[in-house]
Specification:
Distance between the termini of chain A: 67 Å
Oligomer: heterodimer
Order of helices and strands of chain B: HE
Number of helices of chain A: 4
Strand order of the largest sheet of chain A: 7-8-9-10-15-14-13-12
Number of strands of chain B: 1
Helix content of chain B: 25-40%
Helix content of chain A: 10-25%
Distance between the termini of chain B: 52 Å
Chain lengths: 638, 56
Amino acid sequence: MVKVNCPSCGASVAFQSTFSIVAVCEHCSSTLVRHDINVEDIGKMATLQSDGSPLQLGVGGEYKGVSFSVVGRIQLRYDRGIWNEWHLMFSDGRSGWLGEAGGTYAVSFLRQTDTPIPGFESLKAGGKIQLRDQSFWVQNVESARCIAGEGELPFRVASGYEAPVADLLGDQASFATIDYSEEAPLVFIGEYVEFDDLRLSNLREFESWSNKASPKVRAFQCVQCGGAVTQRGLLQTISVVCPSCGTIIDVSDDNLKVLSTFEAKTKVKPAIPLGTRGTFSEGEFELIGFLQRFVTVEGVDYHWREYLLFNPYKGFRWLSEYNGHWNYIKSTLHRPSMLGNGDMRYKGKTFRHFQSATAKVDYVIGEFYWRVQQGEACLVSDFIDPPRMFSVENTEGDISYSVGEYMEPADIASAFKLTTPLPSRIGVGGSQPSPLEKTVSKVGAFTLAFLAIALAIQLATLAFSQNRLVYQKELAYKPTDAEKSRVTEVFELNGRTSNVVVRTRANVTNAWIYLSMALINDDTGTAYDFGREIGYYFGTDSDGAWSEGSQTDSVYLPHVPSGHYYLRVEPEGAAPATYMLQVYRDVPRWWMFLVTVGLIVIFPAVVLWMKRSFEFKRWSESDHPMSNLVSSGEEDDE
Amino acid sequence: MIRGFVVFGTLLLTTFAYATYTGAGFVQYEEIKDVPKSIRNNPGVYRSVYSRVPHK
């Protein structure tokens, strides 16, 4: 660290970073340029504008395991408000930048690149640029103006200088800025980071947020109607709508410039009052803005409502509500990958295209971090991976991404401690998780387990069954016999109680024979009495040859205990015949297995049908309605 | 719902295993106790339940 005395006021001014060549005296705002052995006072630095940033000089933090401290700042104004570039001094000696605007944070480092840089005028949102073997896509193109600087900076800055810049998004959260304010454009490459990941300390405290004090608001009179207007966004919002006359006021302008006035045919009352604070998994947020947007599809307007939430440290979040379905939405700077079939991938998950339409704003109240306008339009594309929804909003010169997560209305009511009921749910929300999603996977797992067990039982039965011919005998029948009944020799059925199969073959042709049979246990005197008919007919008619019936028959007698048995057979028929009797013991069968499998799969089939029905309702609201409940669906694209 | 399916599946598999093991089936037959030993010598004395079933 080098300390010098300010040539203007004599106060001590420190140069902590070896990269710093400029320091602004915190006592008299003189801009001091460091030379080899002395410092030069190049004039007073303009006053920084109050901007509600949670950062300040002296803030400490950590990036990828390396600690840093904030030693300087350049404050810039761009079309959508104020943007700060905080100069970081890392503990490993590096110098970097923390870009911060509206709760978005990006760490970047000045990089040399041999790749030719396209001209500023040729840049368009969505265009691809190659930098140091990395692909980037232009996110937005802005002409920013420097408001002021403070602390230590690695180059000279002066209030008012123009900084044409392009923000680029790479794969994942990689980020680059091309600063065209120098003759040779400066390239800064880094990545977007989450506020919590930076582990910032010594942050600025906001009175109404660092304790449980009531929300602090800035109040002023509407320049159009004189009505009371409040601003809750701690100078991070730039347009406020007068609740009395609908005038949209630019609060980033010292003179409270009127941006526009909107006229709504009917006032829309938010389901959650402005100024209400709610607690979510990310922390506490205050509801500061409300707008209604709509899309027109086949001549029908579909309206939904969006609620802007604010936290001075975390930035902005959104709640959207359509037909009583809520999503908690956060902007993301992770660039998704578009897939060839129109779907996209984001953080390793595939999101299916749901809907694309041009959305227009038709009602606004509260305040916003951009200059909102009635009728403002943008192309919105929604992709879903329930319970998450990924949205791409494309306006001229700007592409923004956001990811939302479905919230149950009861959770919304609980977060805000609402006592009034929220709009009732109608239909199925685009990102609404199927209540059967977990059930389906569990039922699927149990079904597979049950089927495996059933198969194992069947295989064991096949492997261990006797399936043995115990006895066979051929007998003859004549209708003229005085005594037609016959008995067989005694045979033994051993093993456990199981089935017995009696197979019969009779040489009947265009005739029948009926066999009244009894399997009789010679030991106990128990008889299993049954009858079988064998008939076989054939011939020719005008349609050709035909046949009917069969010369063979099988009957399975269940639950037959072991023992010594014989068969008693009493034949009956019009014609003489010989018949062969075969007795089998313990014969495995397939029908019970098939019935079991059929009964097992009924339950998952019903669950799948219910899930399918749920998805049918979901996709009916999309650009890809299912053609019906049975087919694989979603192929009904026009 | 899952619990119901598990109970149903368990009962079904138990029934299947028991039925398979004991050779269960749905064939219609009559079980008659204590038929006389003399059938072996004189089969005609036995009157089958099915001998009076009408047929072709």
